[in-house]
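Q: Can someone sanity-check these two? First one:
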Amino acid sequence: MKLFCRIYGEGPPLVILHGLYGSSDNWMTIARNISSHYTVYLPDQRNHGKSPHDDVHDYKSMSNDLFELATEYRLRSFFLAGHSMGGKTAVNFALKWPGMINGLAILDISPFTDYDSLSASRNQHKNILSVILKTNIAAAKSRKEIEELLSVSIPSEKERKVIMKNIQRDADKKFSWKLNAKSLMKNLDMILEGINRQVIDDLRITGFPVIFLKGEKSDYLNPDDYNYILRLFPAAEFRVIRNAGHWLHVDNPDAVSEALLSLLYY
């Protein structure tokens, strides 16, 4: 699948993959912060932003999309960063094409399935996607009106702001959703799926720097997984981004920018 992609700056290539409900728009501040050191590629992953919609949405297909993007831009090797769903895509890509990776940054996600919180996560995302599917934003007169509609079922203002990044006006000037909520709902279990901990010793990858960034106020990256991650990526380093939740690139963009720049100096 040919992905829509924004490109900033000059220097060694760095591809940044957004998370679920995200898009390349969410990473423009970071891209500008580091654009004097990297050429930053910001693709919209399938079913998000300006990229095509598809019934399939799993990590195999998203990894293949990234390989196609790298081929299109003639990126024989590059730095790779991914947040949340994008982090899982990045890990899967690195496991399949390790020779293409110069450095890897995984932002606030474990590569493994978190069975303790799986049910709660599934219910949370089902609620968000259900709200998107049933909310008739085409009839709304303003973004404020849409936010009021969403606030009934999505009480978190920060969550609503992320969701509302997916709103656009169509050719008739009516509001519409950019993301493909129907496909995301259908494939939700695969989105929440992680690597099997039982096979990680057969997947061990070395040869490039790896950093995992955890939002201080987030529980998406469980420290209990650090030992498993080290079995998968023996060179992995773990850092906490202070005063940040799951959307750490929004809460503390300077610290995230600094971490991404550090990949150049290992």
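And here is the second, same format, sequence then tokens:
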Amino acid sequence: MGSSISSICSAVLAAGFFGSTQLFAAAIPSPALLVLDKADSSLAIVDPATKTVVGRVPTGEAPHELTVSDDGKLAFASNYGARIPGHTLSVIDLEARKEIHRVDLSPMGRPHGLAYHDGKLYFTAELAKLIGGYDPSTNKVDWLLGTGQNKTHMILFTRDGSKAFTSNIDSNTVTAISTSGDWNETVIPVGKGPEGIDISPDGNVWSASSRDGGISIIDPATDTVKQTLHIGTKRSNRLKFTPDGKHVLVSDMGGNELLVIDASTGQVTKRLHIGRQPEGILVVSASEAGGEPRAYVAVSGDNALAILDLNTMEVTGHIATGRDPDGMAWAVRK
């Protein structure tokens, strides 16, 4: 009898342990929607199917931008800081739900834009007027390149990796950087206060100016502005193309609107009043979402994300996050 009871107890304990392991695994969905809550200094892990937060990970103070490794296992956050400039990056193990490295960038201050490219994390440091490279495999910053531009804010790479572009807010410029050889730089004058930046499917770079309500369209073959649009925003914060390349989304933080622009004509086709202070935009294709294409817009003043149906360009729901959401990423484990 004792041995039977012992066996039963062991089986129950094993089942309980196995069940809790399953629950823990289920709590980290794939895909996962990742959101940085600046005022909470944390990363929220959201199940996009249930629209609920299933986990949180502390970061450095006031994290702004977020990206993930190609295998979906690591997340990287730039800890911008609040009143005191930040100088760290958070490296987060998503399966373990914990920060595994706090990368000290001192004396480089105000890390912001992030891009994961060819196995390395690239970041901007606004106060140092540069971009840098961090190697997750060695946990070291092993490369730096000065831009000489004030408040180098965002960074992105072309699809073939041959060029990188940065938006430089206080210099009113975009820097085009050839990644071959000596990483040569070309400084391109654009509108006032460039922040949001993205690359169209045909390779053109669109830069949204936060201080004059304009968009500069850059030809990457010549690294010159070939067209300027005037969209009448009060403070353009982010700009993203839809997966099909037909539309451009611009968050107007000052006007509390999300603008939908026809990419072929440059005309504003919709102005959506989605809440207070829309900031970060994450666009997810139909294949990534496992259904219809959508966009998530961080409505920082309402502590929520707005969900935009990219077929109808209508808001279909909201997700409650933490305080002051901004940077987002889509993580798929491979």
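A (reply): Looked at the second one. The chain is about 10% helix and 55% strand. Residues 1-30 form one domain.
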